[in-house]
Specification:
The protein is mainly alpha-helical. Helix content is about 95%, strand content about 0%. The protein has helices at about 1-110, 115-135. Helix 1 (about 1-110) runs antiparallel to helix 2 (about 115-135). Keywords: Coiled coil.
Length: about 140
């Protein structure tokens, strides 16, 4: 009976050792899994930080682009007004030229004064120069 009891106790002890070893193996496995998950979390946090910085940079660039676009729109409007003013000025000069040409042209056919011919040539040269400068705009 004592032998049986001892055998039974040994069996129970062996079973307990086997269970303890199995529990230790599971514990090691879970510790390793926990370490991997901690590393994954750290990696994801770093990636999140990098993406947030990229987002901030993209938002800043977007705001700068919008500001530049608005500034360019203002410049374009200013240049369009300036062009309109210059075109109106050109039209006025062309009208003046026509008036002068009509008033001087009849004189050119007859014996007109040298002074009238000089005025005509000067006016024509001035208008031609103005037309060239307008075309370059």
């Amino acid at each position: 009976m004592v032998n049986q009891k001892l055998t039974h106790l040994r069996t129970e002890a062996d079973d307990a050792v086997a269970r303890a070893e199995e529990a230790e193996a599971k514990n090691k496995k879970f510790d390793q899994l926990l370490l991997e998950k901690d590393q994954e979390v750290a990696s994801l946090q770093h990636r999140l930080s990098v993406l947030e910085e990229e987002l901030d940079s993209a938002e800043k660039n977007g705001k700068e682009t919008v500001e530049k676009s608005r500034s360019l729109d203002v410049k374009v409007e200013h240049l369009e007004r300036q062009l309109l003013r210059v075109e109106q000025e050109r039209d006025e000069w062309e009208r003046k030229y026509e008036v002068i040409r009509r008033s001087i042209y009849p004189l050119l056919g007859s014996s007109c004064s040298i002074e009238a011919q000089e005025k005509y040539r000067a006016s024509k040269a001035e208008l031609d120069e103005l037309v060239k400068s307008m075309e370059s705009i």
